[in-house]
Amino acid sequence: MKKDITLPSCEQGARKFGMSFKKLSQDELNILFFNNNMDYLERSKIVYNEGSRIKGCFFVYSGILKVYKTGAEGKEQIIRFAKEGDLVGFRSVINQEVACTSAKVINDAILWYIPGSILTQLIKSNSEFAFELIKLACKELGESNCYLTDIAQKTVKERLAEVIVNLVEDFGLDQNSIMNITITREELANIVGTATESVIRLISEFKSEKILESRGRRLRIIDKPKLVEISKSF
Amino acid sequence: MKKDITLPSCEQGARKFGMSFKKLSQDELNILFFNNNMDYLERSKIVYNEGSRIKGCFFVYSGILKVYKTGAEGKEQIIRFAKEGDLVGFRSVINQEVACTSAKVINDAILWYIPGSILTQLIKSNSEFAFELIKLACKELGESNCYLTDIAQKTVKERLAEVIVNLVEDFGLDQNSIMNITITREELANIVGTATESVIRLISEFKSEKILESRGRRLRIIDKPKLVEISKSF
DNA sequence: CGCTCTTTTGATCGGAGTCAAAGTCGGTGG
DNA sequence: CCACCGACTTTGACTCCGATCAAAAGAGCG
């Protein structure tokens, strides 16, 4: 069942990019956005694969992606999510290495492909933009380091609570307090760094503590403050 | 017992910095290196503390630092080490946030302080340098993501083997195959993300398997290939 | 030379992983 | 529209890795 999607124009793409990176001129934005480098991808489509040589990066116009690494025994570890306004894959472009992560669509997404050559050219010609990119990389670095500490020191329960809180903050709740991001138990486990069954047991526990409700894959958050409290190991 | 150290000149500092960042002119290097912003710090001295507002970053002229976060219950998680030629603390400067890590001296070190204003000025005036900094941040980001996956998926034994291998590659061995970096069992535990006792038990195990020897804090590596093998969970 | 920090070893306990099996949901095609 | 299939979820039982607590031995330093 193909959905009928109206694809955005280049101007719309450029406008959205301009909201994430404020130091680019209209001319520079126009260079980035031309028609044949935009793509609509449905859930579970791969954007790029770990180990592949990607020559550019992707700007998320809409939708949600997961960025993950495949560890020993093929188990995936989700590193982060990318949503509207985010840039994925630039690390590999900058370092001219093969991708060290994979990216897959979680919520149907519209992506703009940005060739690496154009990106590096912009960095070198516009140092304000370069500064914005440094900031972006440093922000991700800070988050990665934080999560490294959490995963090394907190219990699974604390981490799961934290992950749910983060997802709520990043993607929000609908009018019924149901999380906007669609995520399987297995994916939750792959963020938290635990087994699927452990996530399920803890979610049951949260349910019996009236912290949340679930019907299938839909999670309704009832007591977010309690989750925040749990996430901060006492 | 104060050691007698001959401190390097600004020219020497600038030269070493130029080896790490190749796109700076001599003039630009001279701006970075003036006399009163250099410091000699002994083992266990704090360079900066998590939560403090640092207005600049530090260039490691010599010695070794550990960069760590303090997690719940005060347990430290070592994020990385910095050695000769590395730059620490620039993340906070770039993002203009309080430091989200602490840095402490492991091997007596000579550090050059680089005011944030000068760093950002250089980034904005020299986009090639900006590009080098982006690369640096992206490199650290890639490493952090890798380690995140390892810590989430590998066993303590695998991670300890990996950490030891990394330390050997980064800091080398002396003529007796003894590791150049001085590190306590507790610090090893704080990299691996485990308890001190677990590290001790595993090192005993490695000793009985003739993979390494230890006398006090000195570790002699006998069978590095075996360590590499262990680190790659089968 | 004594004090403190670090290392080592032993014993115990519990969190979380694994395996197995049943139940549920959603989508597809007849 | 309904039946079926595969993917996802749930629950139970069991095991074990690794954390914690305790106590002794060793090393480094003033």
Backbone CA Rg of chain A: 19 Å
Rounded average pLDDT of chain A: 92
Instruction: State the order of secondary-structure elements of chain A, H for helix, E for strand.
Output: HHEEEEEHEHHHHHEEH
- Which structural class best describes the helix and strand composition of chain A? alpha+beta
Beta-strand residue percentage of chain A: 15-25%
Biggest sheet of chain A, open or closed, and with what strands and sense?
A: 6 strands, antiparallel
Low-pLDDT sequence parts of chain A: none
What percentage of residues of chain A falls in helices of 4 or more residues?
Answer: 40-55%
Overall spatial form of chain A: globular
Most extensive interface: pair and counts? Answer: A-B, 46 and 46 residues
Q: State the assembly state of the protein chains.
A: homodimer
Summed up, the helix count of chain A is: 9
Distance between the termini of chain A: 49 Å
Number of strands of chain A: 8
